[in-house]
Amino acid sequence: WIDQTEVTNEMFVRFVDETKHQTDAEKEGTGGVFTGTSWEWIDGAEWRHPQGPDSSVEGLQQHPVVQVSWNDAKAYCEWSGRRLPTEAEWEKAARGTEGQTYPWGNEDIAGNRVNFCDNNCSFSQKDESIDDGYADTAPVGSYPDGASPYGALDMAGNAWEWTADWYDADYYHDAPNQNPQGP
Predict the structure, then answer these.
(1) What angle (nearest 5°) sits at the alpha carbon of residue 24, between those of residues 61 and 182?
(2) What is the dihedral sign for C-alpha 128, 109, 93, 168?
């Protein structure tokens, strides 16, 4: 009921080629880029140039598409005959019915389970003790040892993902027990 991996640059290219969709970042001429210490708006940052005009997704066809807004993700889902999952659906797909800490369970983060800021990363908060093999995003599905109980991959790390609604810590106090639709 949920895609096994994140949407790749290759998949997003097909969507854009077919629909001529222009992303919000392309329309605005700027995108948010994490510089290692803070988020900054960089002119020319958009999905084809995720770090700014001097970057490219060339050679990264199997990596997750980034620099897409909620509107862009929703448009992609509609084009592909899908929909964004609710936050509750995403959490269940990621953590299972037992509410594991991570998709793979409660064991610590390891380089064979997740892509994150490790010893390859250029940011100051990197974890020098772990090597996931990539300085930035990894091709989707690169960490089968990090699969969720439902077989979904990359539910932790690699790229941020959109849901149909948003997370509200207080929502579940009064939410329906079956299929909560979000705040």
Answers:
(1) 95
(2) negative
